[in-house]
Every structure is written in structure tokens, then in C-alpha cells.
Design goal:
The protein is built from eight helices and six strands; from the N terminus they run αββααβαβααββαα. With about 200 residues, the protein is an alpha/beta fold. The chain has a six-stranded mixed beta sheet, with helices on both faces. Strand 5 and strand 6 form a beta hairpin. Bound molecules: iron/sulfur cluster. It catalyses: Hydrolyzes single-stranded DNA or mismatched double-stranded DNA and polynucleotides, releasing free uracil. GO terms for molecular function: 4 iron, 4 sulfur cluster binding; metal ion binding; uracil DNA N-glycosylase activity.
């Protein structure tokens, strides 16, 4: 599939997503967050769901966690953010109640309802490596109940695509941010990805 075809197919799914009412999250969203990036990306990042800033802007990873993810991509991997693809398991923001006060991970019902969109994104983009960020996306992609602390830094597999689980940037920020040993762990995981891809910084 060439880049134009991929782009067209992704846009068509994005249009479906924007009208989707398959789970309760549609009732509280400002807008859907489909994901963004290069349709031909070699690396696809998958988080759990949009947060407040993402819900307001319609873009994935644009708050503080987004800034950290962008640094990981641009400084750690040495490529522009636009060269990878960034998506979430759910395309609408999960919050603890209907007041939009606090984020939470997507529940099982929401994950089941929304994941077909993600699976279609993966199929079209066909990345060389998937990096899952945090528990919900790692557990969904690797079909496990194991926690991220045990899974990070070890290669998994999703239908032949190597999967590297690592911590969600929000978790790193909540646990010390730049000074956190978790950040060093993320860099280590990224190095494994670079080695796998044969990219220069490895
Ligand atoms: S989270 Fe996914 S399944 Fe639920 S309403 Fe939004 S787009 Fe539809």
C-alpha cells in the first residue's frame, strides 16, 4: 500500500471515529482524538486514552506527558515527532466521573468497543516496531494481565510486529519526571528499539 492509500484509509477511519457513539465516552468528549503522524511510520507509539489537553485540541500527547514523549522521540531517538505515529487505545477521554475532573484508564468495555479502530490503524501503518506506553495499551496489545514494571524492557510480539513496552510519560512525570529513575528506564527501552531498527543512535 503506498503512502497516499494509507493516508486515505486512515482519514476514512478518522471520520468514522469522529461520529462514533459505541461506548459511553462519547457523551463526555469535546472531540475524538484519532492519533497523528506518518502513515508510513516505522515506529508506532500507543498510549491509553486522551487526557484533558488532548480532548480540547483533538491531538494525542500534547500536555506535559506529550512534551516528554516528544523529547523521547526527538532527542532520544533522533527523529522528528512527525516521523512516527502516535495513537491511543481509546479515542475519547476517559474520566472518573461525568464532571471531567480527573482522568482514568479506559475500562474493559471501552477498550473492547474502541480497539477495532486501533487494530485497523496498526494494520494500515504496519510499523516495524510498536512501543506501548503504560499498562492499558501493553495489556491490550500483548494480551496479558502482567504489569508494566515486569514487562518493560522486554520484547513482546503482536502478529509478527516486535513490541517494546515502556512506562507512560504521565507515570514518569508523576514519579519524579526528569529526576526519576523511571525516565532512565524509558531511555534504556528506547535504546533497544533503536538497536532493533538499526537506527544510527543505537
Ligand atoms: S472511545 Fe472509541 S468506541 Fe468509545 S465513543 Fe469514543 S471512538 Fe467510539
Amino acid at each position: 500500500m503506498n503512502t497516499l492509500d494509507k493516508s486515505d484509509k486512515l482519514q476514512s477511519i478518522a471520520s468514522e471515529v469522529s461520529k462514533c457513539t459505541k461506548c459511553k465516552l462519547h457523551t463526555t468528549r469535546t472531540q475524538t482524538v484519532f492519533g497523528e503522524g506518518n502513515p508510513d511510520a516505522e515506529v508506532m507509539f500507543i498510549g491509553e486514552g486522551p487526557g484533558k489537553q488532548e480532548d480540547l485540541t483533538g491531538r494525542p500527547f500534547v500536555g506535559k506527558a506529550g512534551e516528554l514523549l516528544t523529547r523521547i522521540i526527538e532527542k532520544g531517538m533522533g527523529v522528528p515527532r512527525e516521523s512516527v505515529f502516535i495513537a491511543n487505545v481509546t479515542k475519547c477521554r476517559p474520566t472518573v466521573d461525568l464532571k471531567f475532573d480527573k482522568d482514568r484508564p479506559p475500562d474493559e468495555e471501552e477498550t473492547i468497543a474502541c480497539s477495532p479502530f486501533l487494530l485497523r490503524q496498526i494494520e494500515i501503518i504496519s510499523p516495524k516496531v510498536i512501543i506501548t506506553l503504560g499498562n492499558p495499551s501493553t495489556r491490550f496489545i500483548l494480551r496479558t494481565q502482567e504489569g508494566i514494571t515486569k514487562l518493560r524492557g522486554k520484547w513482546g510480539d503482536f502478529h509478527g510486529i516486535p513490541v517494546m513496552p515502556t512506562y507512560h510519560p504521565s507515570y514518569v512525570i508523576r514519579n519524579g519526571g526528569d529526576n526519576s529513575p523511571l525516565k532512565r528506564d524509558v531511555w534504556e527501552d528506547v535504546k533497544l528499539v533503536l538497536q532493533k531498527l538499526g537506527w544510527k543512535r543505537a
